[in-house]
Design a protein that fits this description.
alpha+beta; four-stranded antiparallel β-sheet; 5 helices; 42% helix; 28% strand
């Protein structure tokens, strides 16, 4: 499968044209991560998007209590690092390979250089990014409700 075909399967790029996918395909670099390797750590400053081509990762976040809470398990064609790609801020979660994992990595610097020439790429990505925020809000509400119920039972 070509890089363009792989990128076309990634939900964040679903609204892009073939030409836009080709532009982005020029930006990615293949990276391999062995099982149990931390791909990105919460708080790190690396601003890149990681697209899972093969393998599975765990996304975790440190809770105020200090414990690590798993937020998601992802596999191809999922992606991580979209927030840091867009805002350049520190990583909001830790991502660890659960098995040998292959990713395509797109740096923020090259991504933004491409957006300057074709801003419609960003516009096409917005529906997927909005959906991810809505799903996160839903999960937070479910978590909050379960926390309230757990404390009321105690």
């Amino acid at each position: 499968m070509t890089t363009e075909e792989l990128l076309a399967r990634v939900p964040i790029f679903a609204g892009l044209t073939r030409d836009q996918i080709t532009k982005l395909a020029r930006l990615v670099v293949a990276r391999s991560f062995p099982r149990a390797m931390v791909i990105m750590r919460e708080g790190d400053g690396d601003a890149a998007l990681y697209i899972i081509v093969q393998g599975q990762v765990s996304v975790t976040k440190r809770a105020p209590t200090g414990e690590s809470v798993e937020l998601a398990r992802l596999s191809a064609p999922d992606f991580v690092g979209d927030m840091a790609l867009l805002d350049g801020m520190a990583r909001s979660a830790t991502v660890t390979a659960l098995e040998d994992t292959e990713c395509m990595v797109m740096s923020r610097q090259f991504f933004f250089a491409t957006l300057r020439n074709d801003p419609e790429i960003a516009v096409a990505m917005l529906p997927t990014l909005s959906l991810r925020i809505r799903l996160l809000e839903k999960r937070l509400m479910q978590f909050s409700t379960s926390e309230v119920n757990r404390h009321s039972l105690a």
